[in-house]
C-alpha cells in the first residue's frame, strides 16, 4: 500500500514538474523578428527625416534611430558634423555587414560599430563608400547590393536594414531621361526588441 502511494506520489510530481516546465517554455518564447518594408520615406526636403525602428515611423522627437537627408544617413549617437543635423541624444551606432538581408542573423562584435564623428559618418557618404553607387553617365544612384546595416538604436536595442531604392515608387530601372523624384527611400528592416543577440 505504501509502495503504491509512493509510486503515485512520484508520478504526480513528475507530471506536475513537466507541466510547469512546459508552461515556462511557452512563456519564455521569443517572438519571431518581423521584416517590415518602408516605402518612399521622403528625405528630399531641406533638413533631416528622423526614423524610429521601434515605432516604425518618421518621428519629430529625440527618440530617433537613423535620419536621412538626400544621400546622407546619420545615426542617433556620436556628434554632429554640421549645425543642420539633429542633436544626437542616444547611444546609436552602425555596423556595415556584407551579405544578404536574410543571412545577417547575428549582431556584429561591439568593436564593429561606429558612431557619427566630426569628420566621418558611421555610414560613410559618397559613391562606393557607404550605401550607394553613382553612375556619372546616367546620373542614377543605386544601392550597393549585399550591404546590410546593423544599427544600435538610440536606446540600445538593435535593428538591421537594407536600402532597396532611392527613387519614388522604387522603379526597378530608373529612367534618367524622365523626371524622377529622388530622395525617397524604400528599405527593409527588422527590429529586435529583446535582449537577444540575433535577428
How much β-strand is present in the residues? 25-35%
- Total domains: 1
Please give the alpha-carbon distance between the first and last residues: 55 Å
Shape: globular
Q: In which range does the helix fraction lie? A: 10-25%
What class do helices, strands and sheet pairing give?
Answer: alpha+beta
InterPro entries: HmuY
Protein name: HmuY protein
Signal peptide: 1-23
Pfam family, one: HmuY
Structural commentary:
The protein is an alpha+beta fold. It has one domain. It is 13% helix and 31% strand. It contains one helix and eleven strands. The strands form three sheets. Strands 1-11-10-9-6 form a five-stranded antiparallel β-sheet, with no helix packed on it. A hairpin with a 4-residue loop joins strand 2 and strand 3.
Blueprint (SSEs and pairs):
Elements (H helix, E strand, L loop, with lengths): L1 H26 L7 E8 L6 E4 L4 E3 L6 E4 L2 E4 L17 E6 L33 E3 L6 E3 L3 E6 L5 E10 L14 E11 L7
Antiparallel strand pairs: 1-11, 2-3, 2-4, 4-5, 6-9, 7-8, 9-10, 10-11
Summary?
Residues 1-23 form the signal peptide. This protein has 199 residues and is α+β, with helices and mostly antiparallel strands.
Key terms:
199 residues, globular, 1 helix, 13% helix, 11 strands, alpha+beta
